């Protein structure tokens, strides 16, 4: 797989306010990447740098082999962008709006109708954009990003304002694009929503990249404990230590329920002992760390040294 | 070039849809027709061609109205799109920033030209239809009046873009646009007149007067249309025009310069702007 987007050592500040500090990352073709961070963490700035809308103070950005800010437009024809809070001119209809963008990208106009249908706007194409709901505008935004079979898609908080059904059809479209070999960058401020949708997660905080890898890799790096919750038949607290084989690392939720935070290395042995015949356990739940906990861990690790 | 035309087409489409074209055309036509029929009544039969009288009244109308309309259309062009967020998306497309400005300029100028041609044309057509004799010289003067009105519109569209590219908020752009209009249309002439009266011709000679008149695009337009031949005698501008010693070509060149310089400056400022 070849790199479609390369960001190397990029720093950008607005006046004295640093927006992005020394970020290096590369996106490959056929890959779906989640760019996760708080509001104001630098996600939008990174996307604008990849679009060439702003120039880095230092470092280089290459998109499809070109410097996007250099004023050469060959790469931009194969690039789709959905801005956060997308907006359109209210006076034109959905079809007119999409046709305008299609002309700019030199995409044949007869594809516009099919694209409107694909995002579920076929019935509303001759209505003014001013009459559209937020979700419909977001869909029109997605439609313009999909014009001309883009190789790189930069979607800035694409699912805000979409209801769950639309959200699902949105991720179906993303999956089709991935299958087609396109690079899809999804930015979000919540990691949970992106579980199973992204091949790789890049977490940014205060303009710096603090984590980069698959969700599995991030779990391994973070070494977050798995929470094991057991329901005891009828047991005194003192004897719990005997079968668990360690002391103190459990807490009693109520008379019968215990909660144990198990490190990844000891998880299996703990489960074995809890499942053994001499343990007075009637029920057992295993909860791996959630993505929100994982995210909070990386943010916390970043904050700690400061 | 293709991109410029695509943007221009969209501007015209928007202008038609949000009734800008209709409103300006109707406004100009209504005022032009009113001036034509009311304005010609008191002159009676004085030897001046009827169309020449109309040229004088329509030129005065243009000086007030066309810059105002042009600034209204243009002051929002860049800062407004940035505030609404549409500029961000547009600039992510394979289009240069100067192409965006040029496309908008052509689109807006087309809207203004259409309104001026139709509005003022209605006045001339109605005169011809009512059987008023009009000689060729008057027709030529009328045509050049319309063309220079469009050129004056182009000047203020370009100035509006420069304002729009410079400021951070739409409200500021609107305020500055009104200020530009006031200065160019009203205050500058009053101040110039005051200075000329006080000076009594001691230090301000013909050369300096010419320069001062060229420094304001509305004065260049005024001289171009009101300063020559029979129209000049009618409007009372003939004396000023003779003193200033400015030919039509110099005046047209001044108007063109007043269009191109702000337009180039707007493109330069916009190119450096961070989104």
From TrEMBL, chain A:
Alphabetized InterPro entries for the sequence: AAA+_ATPase, ABC_transporter-like_ATP-bd, ABC_transporter-like_CS, ABC_Transporter_VariousFunc, P-loop_NTPase
Lineage: superkingdom: Bacteria
Keywords from the UniProt entry: ATP-binding, Nucleotide-binding, Transport
Domain ABC transporter: 5-231
Record keyword ATP-binding present: yes
UniProt GO MF annotations: ATP binding; ATP hydrolysis activity
Family: Belongs to the ABC transporter superfamily.
Protein name (record): Cu-processing system ATP-binding protein
TrEMBL record, chain B:
Pfam families: ABC2_membrane_2
GO cellular component, one term: plasma membrane
Coiled-coil region list: none
Keyword Transmembrane (UniProt): yes
TM region(s), chain numbering: 20-41, 53-74, 105-129, 141-163, 175-198, 250-271
Keywords of this entry: Membrane, Transmembrane, Transmembrane helix
Keyword Mitochondrion: no
One GO molecular-function entry: ABC-type transporter activity
This protein's name: Cu-processing system permease protein
């Amino acid at each position: 797989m070849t790199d479609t987007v390369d960001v190397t050592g990029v720093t950008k500040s607005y006046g004295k306010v640093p927006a992005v500090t020394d970020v290096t990352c590369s996106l490959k073709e056929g890959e779906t990447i989640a760019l996760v961070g708080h509001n104001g963490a630098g996600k939008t700035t990174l996307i604008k740098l990849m679009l060439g809308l702003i120039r880095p103070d230092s470092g280089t950005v290459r998109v499809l082999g070109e410097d996007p800010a250099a004023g050469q437009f060959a790469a931009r024809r194969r690039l789709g962008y959905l801005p956060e809070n997308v907006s359109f001119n209210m006076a034109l209809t959905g079809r007119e709006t999409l046709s305008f963008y299609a002309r700019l990208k030199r995409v044949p106009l007869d594809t516009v109708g099919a694209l409107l249908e694909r995002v579920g706007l076929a019935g509303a194409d001759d209505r003014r954009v001013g009459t559209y709901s937020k979700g419909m505008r977001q869909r029109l935004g997605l439609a313009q990003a999909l014009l001309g079979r883009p190789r790189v898609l930069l979607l800035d908080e694409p699912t805000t304002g979409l209801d769950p059904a639309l959200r699902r059809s949105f991720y179906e479209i993303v999956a089709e694009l991935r299958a087609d070999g396109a690079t899809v960058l999804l930015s979000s401020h919540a990691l949970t929503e992106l579980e199973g949708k992204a091949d790789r997660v890049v977490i940014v905080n205060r303009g710096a990249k603090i984590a980069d890898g698959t969700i599995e890799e991030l779990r391994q790096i973070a070494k977050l404990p798995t929470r094991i919750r057991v329901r005891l038949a009828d047991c005194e607290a003192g004897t719990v230590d005997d079968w668990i084989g360690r002391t103190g690392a459990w807490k009693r939720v109520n008379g019968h329920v215990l909660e144990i935070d198990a490190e990844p290395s000891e998880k299996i042995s703990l489960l074995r002992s809890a499942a053994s015949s001499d343990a007075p356990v009637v029920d057992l739940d295993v909860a791996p760390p959630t993505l929100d906990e994982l995210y909070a861990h990386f943010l916390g690790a970043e904050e700690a040294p400061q | 070039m293709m991109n410029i035309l695509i943007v221009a087409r969209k501007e015209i489409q928007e202008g038609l849809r949000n009734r800008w074209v209709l409103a300006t055309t109707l406004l100009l036509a209504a005022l032009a027709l009113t001036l034509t029929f009311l304005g010609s009544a008191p002159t009676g039969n004085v030897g001046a061609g009827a169309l020449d009288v109309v040229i004088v009244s329509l030129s005065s109308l243009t000086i007030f109205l066309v810059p105002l309309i042009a600034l209204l259309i243009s002051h929002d062009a860049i800062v407004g799109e940035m505030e609404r967020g549409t500029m961000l998306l547009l600039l992510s497309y394979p289009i240069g920033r100067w192409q965006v400005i040029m496309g908008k300029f052509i689109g807006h100028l087309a809207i203004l030209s259409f309104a001026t041609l139709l509005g003022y044309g209605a006045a001339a057509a109605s005169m011809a239809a009512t059987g008023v004799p009009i000689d060729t010289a008057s027709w030529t003067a009328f045509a050049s009046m319309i063309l220079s009105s469009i050129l004056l519109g182009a000047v203020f569209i370009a100035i509006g873009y420069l304002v729009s590219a410079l400021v951070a908020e739409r409200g500021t752009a609107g305020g500055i646009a009104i200020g530009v209009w006031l200065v160019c249309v009203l205050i500058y002439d009053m101040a110039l007149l005051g200075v000329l009266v006080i000076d009594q011709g001691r230090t301000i000679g013909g050369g300096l007067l010419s320069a001062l008149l060229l420094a304001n695009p509305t004065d260049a337009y005024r001289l171009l249309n009101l300063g020559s031949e029979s129209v000049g005698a009618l409007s009372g501008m003939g004396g000023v025009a003779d003193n200033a010693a400015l030919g039509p070509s110099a005046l047209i060149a001044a108007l063109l310069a007043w269009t191109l310089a702000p337009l180039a400056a707007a493109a330069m400022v916009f190119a450096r702007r961070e989104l």
